[in-house]
Amino acid sequence: MQADKLIAQIEAYAPTELAWEKDPIGLQLGDAKQEIHRIMTTLDVRPEVVQEAIDADVDFIFAHHPMIFKPAKNLDLSVPQNKMYAELIKHNIVVYAAHTNLDAAKGGMNDWLADALKLQNVTPLIPNGDGQTGLGRIGTLAQPQTVAEYAAFIRDLFQVKAVRVIANDLKRPIQRIAVLGGDGGDEYPDALAAGADAYVTADFYYHTAHDVLADDFVVIDPDHHMEAIAKDKMVSLIKKWQQENHWDIDDVFSSTINTDPYTYI
Q1: In angstroms, rounded to a whole number, what is the distance separating the alpha carbons of residues 170 and 88?
Q2: Transmembrane ranges (predicted)?
Q3: DSSP state letters, 189-229
Q4: Is 258 part of any domain?
Q5: Residue 151 to residues 38, 147, 170, 205, 206: CA-CA distances in angstroms?
Q6: Is 65 annotated as a binding residue?
Q7: Do the bridges between strand 164-166 and strand 94-97 make them parallel or antiparallel, or are there none, so unpaired?
Q8: What total number of domains does the chain contain?
């Protein structure tokens, strides 16, 4: 089938109008009219991910994070990023990204994270007018846990060596939890105002963390790579759409490459 059929389905699920206005979502590279047969999902489009796709004869990559945040200044192929673009073109691989629109969508990134975090009665943290889409999610745990207990659960859930915890008291019980995938430091006042006991997000800034302590709030930062949950979730969605629409696709699978740039020692 043509790539534009899959793109249309993705955009019906995560409408582009939900995206942050400066977010470079959508078709990143390639021809939407190209026939595709093997689809791979990934969090990030990195050279090692592209090589994995080439080795697996992939012709469509779905990425959560846009491939091109900063436009290339030239096409010097000694630059690894430029060489990666050239390899994608050479091997006829279409690349498409759904980022903040997938974050905000009903049944998208933040709902996936809320479910993984065992939250119940979930609603958008910063809702759009429809009340069902928007940034982040907030919900409750079935039973209260201490900050330390819940932080350990999150550490194990996202398979990181450690999480960063910003809290005055690790023994404090928490039950109402807000989550925002990716970099959510600017939105912590929204989580506080919404009545959350704790807020799960990533890339938390040092000086903002002092503000959190001054507010006697709790933040747990498990690393931006927690959004890798999108890889398998998108595989399941695409396979569901394939069955519903009788798409002629050979395979859909997630990248096995861990693109987390951090090493915890």
Answers
A1: 47
A2: none
A3: HHHHHTT-SEEEEES--HHHHHHHHHTT--EEE--GGGGGH
A4: no
A5: 38, 6, 9, 18, 19
A6: yes
A7: unpaired
A8: 2
17 is in an annotated binding site: no
Same domain, 45 and 17: yes
- What residue type is assigned to position 82 of the chain? N
Task: Check whether 99 is labelled as a binding-site residue.
Answer: no
Q: Is the pTM of this model over 0.90?
A: yes
Question: What is the spatial order of strands in the sheet that 26-29 belongs to?
Answer: 26-29, 94-97, 60-63, 38-42, 251-254
pLDDT tens readout for residues 28-66? 999 999 999 999 999 999 999 999 999 999 999 999 999
Residues 34 and 77 in one domain: yes
pLDDT digit string, tens, across residues 62-85: 999 999 878 888 999 999 999 999
* 227 belongs to an annotated ligand binding site: yes
CA atoms within 13 A on the CB side of 104: 22
Identify the domain containing residue 110 by its residue range.
106-221
